[in-house]
């Protein structure tokens, strides 16, 4: 970082590979890099630890942070960084200095593939799948949000709340409305209740 090539660079992306021996310092790293003016974005990366028997994969198995630790990492970094969204198989946060902070997965370990390949589920109870565009989808997302609350998984709860909005938005579209139309009506209802 003392090299002129770094100091003269206008846009720098910092990639931090999550390892067993550095994860406890992750907030310190985030603060440090987000205070450097030419650092534009910071990415935290999980390595693929599927282990195909190579020397490299054995090193990953012994040293890299396991994907099962993702909830702990997220819960740690949201103490000082704001969760913005979950988009294109990555979590996107914003640091105190308003710089993008993301969590990435190697191609063999993307978030969706964890659910499919390892039959991993965030939810502790079976929840009936709804149909997108119908009220059953709203019911599904509400049940998932309730389950997240029961697990005290606040990140998952927030994601499920955003899914509820998406399910409602599709129903509104079926009636020729937008989510903004519903928000306007909701604001009018709230305003009228002030005078009750």
Please supply descriptive tags for the structure shown above.
single chain; 196 residues; alpha/beta; Helix Hairpins; 2 domains; 8 helices; 45% helix; 16% strand; globular
Describe what this molecule looks like in 3D.
The chain is an alpha/beta fold. The protein has two domains: 1-120; 122-196, Helix Hairpins (Orthogonal Bundle), CATH 1.10.287. The protein is built from eight helices and five strands; from the N terminus they run H-E-H-E-H-H-E-E-E-H-H-H-H. It has helices at 4-7, 26-34, 55-63, 70-77, 111-117, 135-150, 154-174, 179-193; strands at 12-17, 39-46, 82-87, 90-94, 100-105. It has a five-stranded mixed beta sheet with strand order 1-2-5-4-3, covered by helices on one side. Strand 4 (90-94) and strand 5 (100-105) form a beta hairpin. The longest helix is centred in the C-terminal third of the chain and has 21 residues, at 154-174. The radius of gyration is 21 Å and the shape is globular. Residues 107-121 have low confidence and may be disordered.
Give a short overview.
By secondary structure, the protein is of the alpha/beta class. It has two domains: 1-120; 122-196, Orthogonal Bundle (Helix Hairpins), CATH 1.10.287.
Q: Care to count the β-strands? A: 5
- C-alpha termini separation: 62 Å
Q: What percentage of the residues does DSSP assign to strands (E)?
A: 15-25%
SSE succession: HEHEHHEEEHHHH
Provide the gyration radius in Å: 21 Å
Q: How many domains comprise the coordinates?
A: 2
Structural class, by secondary structure, is alpha/beta
Largest sheet: 5 strands, mixed
Q: Which of globular, elongated, flat, extended, rod-shaped describes the shape?
A: globular
Poorly predicted regions: 107-121
Question: How helix-rich are the residues, as a percent range?
Answer: 40-55%
Sheet with the most strands: spatial strand order: 1-2-5-4-3
Mean pLDDT: 82
> Treating each run of at least 4 consecutive H or I residues as one helix, how many helices?
8
